[in-house]
Design goal:
GO terms for molecular function: ATP binding; hydrolase activity; nucleic acid binding; RNA helicase activity. It is built from 16 helices and 14 strands. The chain has helices at residues 10-18, 26-36, 51-64, 82-95, 113-121, 130-138, 155-160, 164-170, 189-198, 210-214, 229-239, 252-264, 278-289, 300-303, 323-330, 351-361; strands at 41-44, 75-78, 103-106, 125-128, 149-152, 179-184, 203-206, 217-223, 245-248, 269-272, 295-298, 313-316, 340-346, 366-369. The strands form 2 sheets. The protein has a 7-stranded parallel beta sheet with strand order 3-4-2-5-6-1-7, sandwiched between helices. Helix 2 packs parallel to helix 3 (51-64), helix 3 crosses helix 4 and helix 15 packs across helix 16.
Length: 372
């Protein structure tokens, strides 16, 4: 199956080919044709499955086909964080390159003036975080009367971050007649209730990430004393010179400590976690993406914003308490069918967590004893 088989128009196909993608991911195969016919979609999928393109491509194609163009917003994509909003915007940049479709992105934490100027010029697609969207709507800079396509992305994370009330305030402001594309990695009851009120006979798509992401990842566990973990990390980083490496720490405090230890060993790294300001997180992400720094230390919540296509190596400096988190973590490597490596450092007191992980993934981890 190639993108050509999905009824995508020539200008978008040209942009996809330029990005080097030939074959669509499972969610794209299911979602793109359904979305192109105008159906609502309920997608249960994590980041890393290619879901952004699964909703962005059909929306660009629908809007490119419009005969009459005006300045009004015709598609709204709602996402929980600034990092994700920027990633989606980059994705639309790539696929809309050879079309006349204009898009913009808005989020909080920065001065609104540039965003307001962009809105005055007019955009077809608006990518937004809930707080800034409601804020600019209250100031009458944004009107949603002409929205034909509405995407709610990472709905479960919106719930976690306390945005559900904002979303409920926003929904009545959208036109009744529209296409809704709804995505969530998990489906708790509150989310199911929301989909029932929002979607009309949706096409349901579930992409099971558990073992499918894990299959393309080589996993090794190092049994190591807690105090020797930093020596092991330094030794591995020296051996993987030139590769981008994402290191997971269970706590913010430990993430900062690892950065200091690596700095002493002459290895540049940055930490990304909830205590860092939005700007500090964004600049660390940019540095990591562009290769300015090759080692990023992250906590679990902060890492959900990281979407880097070819990340060869993920290291679990600490084991997570919940086995599902392990799958989320290592799923950052081996993206879109690339091979990846995940190394896990396990101290004596963490050994009991290993069985839970093996039970969940259905894979035995290859074990290495590490002693200095």
């Amino acid at each position: 199956m190639t993108f050509k088989d999905l009824n995508i128009t020539e200008p978008i196909l040209k942009a996809i080919e330029e990005k080097g993608y030939a074959n669509p991911t499972p969610i794209q195969v299911k979602a793109i044709p359904a979305a192109l016919t105008g159906k609502d979609i309920l997608g249960c999928a994590q980041t890393g499955t290619g879901k952004t393109a699964a909703f962005a491509i059909p929306i660009i194609q629908h809007l490119q086909a419009l005969k009459k163009r005006d300045k009004s917003i015709k598609a709204l994509i709602l996402t929980p964080t600034r990092e994700l909003a920027l990633q989606i915007s980059e994705c639309i940049d790539d696929y809309a390159k050879y079309t006349q479709v204009r898009h913009g992105v808005i989020f909080g934490g920065v001065n609104q003036r540039a965003q307001v100027n962009m809105l005055h010029k007019g955009v077809d697609i608006l990518v937004a975080t809930p707080g800034r969207l409601l804020d600019l709507m209250n100031q009458r800079y944004i009107h949603l009367d002409n929205v034909r396509h509405f995407v709610l992305d990472e709905a479960d994370r919106m719930l976690d971050m306390g945005f559900i009330h904002d979303i409920k305030r926003l929904l009545p402001k959208l036109p009744k007649e529209k296409q809704t594309l709804f995505f969530s990695a998990t489906m708790p009851d509150t989310i199911i209730a929301l989909t029932n009120s929002l979607l009309k006979q949706p096409v349901k798509i579930t992409i099971t990430p558990k073992s499918s992401t894990v299959d393309t990842i080589e996993q090794t566990i190092y049994f190591v004393e807690k105090k020797e973990k930093s020596k092991l990390l330094i030794s591995i980083l020296h051996k993987t010179e030139g590769q981008s490496v994402l290191v997971f720490s269970r706590t913010k405090h430990n993430a900062d400590r690892i950065v200091r230890v690596l700095s002493k060993a002459g290895i540049g790294s940055q930490a990304i976690h909830g205590n860092k300001s939005q700007n500090a997180r964004q600049s660390a992400l940019e540095n990591f993406k562009t290769g300015k720094i090759r080692v990023m230390i992250a906590t679990d919540i902060a890492a959900r914003g990281i979407d880097i296509n070819e990340l060869p190596l993920v290291i679990n400096y600490d084991l997570p308490d919940v086995p599902e988190t392990y799958v989320h973590r290592i799923g950052r490597t081996g993206r879109a069918g690339n091979l990846g490596t995940a190394l896990t450092f396990c101290s004596q007191e963490e050994r009991k967590l290993v069985n839970d992980i093996q039970k969940l993934t259905g894979k035995k981890l290859s074990k290495v004893e590490f002693a200095i």
